[in-house]
Amino acid sequence: MKLLNHIINLFYPRVCAACGNLLMSEEETVCLSCRYLLPKTLYEKNADNPLAQMFYGQVDFHAVTAEFFFSKTGKVQHLLHQLKYECNKDAGFFLGQQIGESIRESELFQDIDYLIPIPLHPKKEHIRGYNQSHVIAQGVEDVTGIPIMNDCLYRKVFTSTQTKKSREERWDNVKDIFDIKDHKQLQGRHVLLIDDVLTTGATLMAAGTTLSQIPDIKISVATAACTS
């Protein structure tokens, strides 16, 4: 078996999803060096962190966190690129596991009933082949045991990319794109919205605003990364 693995690695080398270097035999997805160097925010420990403040007066989130700081050309950016554009679901699962480890130890995230990954429009999900936020949520579920709910919040409008839009343009692009299939499923529940990157917060604000229509719901947010 070891010989077979050596042969496979010769033609299909296992590389770190964060830095691209070869993985050692005992390493999985992300090398030990990158795991140590990835820039954690530790926002799950602070209810009044800068991300939470972004939404004050906009939507009533119970708690908001992001696992890592994101910067262009950095290791976190490489992980997210691997997930979104290179079909590397292991990278997303790893990011979700990191979120799970952090929120599992946080008092702010102790009573969550369901994970809700930000949905893609069916057309966009068909093109990509999967929803990256769902892959991240699977990693969170693996660590915490909190179940994923996919069949409640859905995206009813196909939108253009947000990448080059201003904060106002992003909000105009997404403010009415979500809807809910069954309000009763989430009434009185605490849900955790899962997404890949938090930049302006427009998409999460739109999802949160839609979910806020449900009586007695409590909504928190966790993303893999945020801009520093």
Notes on the structure:
This protein is of the alpha/beta class and 228 residues long. The chain has helices at 2-11, 32-37, 50-54, 75-85, 89-104, 122-128, 132-144, 167-174, 202-211, and strands at residues 64-70, 114-117, 153-155, 178-180, 190-198, 218-227. The strands form two sheets. A four-stranded parallel β-sheet has the order 1-6-5-2, sandwiched between helices. It contains nine helices and six strands. Helix 9 (202-211) links the parallel strand 5 (190-198) and strand 6. It folds into two domains: 1-37, no CATH class; 38-227, 3-Layer(aba) Sandwich (Rossmann fold), CATH 3.40.50.2020.
Can you tag this structure with a few keywords?
globular, two-stranded antiparallel sheet, Rossmann fold, 228 residues, 6 strands
Q: How would the global form be characterised?
A: globular
Helix content: 25-40%
Count of domains: 2
Span between termini: 44 Å
Strand content: 15-25%
Name of the CATH first level of the largest domain: Alpha Beta
Report the total helices. 9
Average of pLDDT:
90
Sheet with the most strands, sense and barrel status: 4 strands, parallel
CATH third-level topology of the largest domain? Rossmann fold
CATH architectural category of the largest domain: 3-Layer(aba) Sandwich
Question: Could you name the ranges where pLDDT drops below 50 across 5 or more consecutive residues?
Answer: 1-11
Neighbour order of strands in the largest sheet = 1-6-5-2
If you compute it from the alpha carbons, what radius of gyration comes out, rounded to the nearest whole angstrom? 18 Å
